[in-house]
Amino acid sequence: MVIFLHSLVLIFLRCKKIVFQLIAPAFCVHCYTFLSEDLFLCNSCQASIIPIVTRDLFITDAYQAKVFAISNYKEPLRSLTLAKQYGNRLASKQLGQLLWQKTDLHAVDFDCIVPVPLHWTRYAWRWFNQADVIAQELSKASGKPVIHLLKRNRNTGYQAGLSREKRLKNLCQAFTLLDQTKAYKGKKILLVDDVMTTGTTLKTCARELIKVAPEKIFIAVACRTF
Question: Quick one: average pLDDT of 14-33?
Answer without folding.
Answer: 55
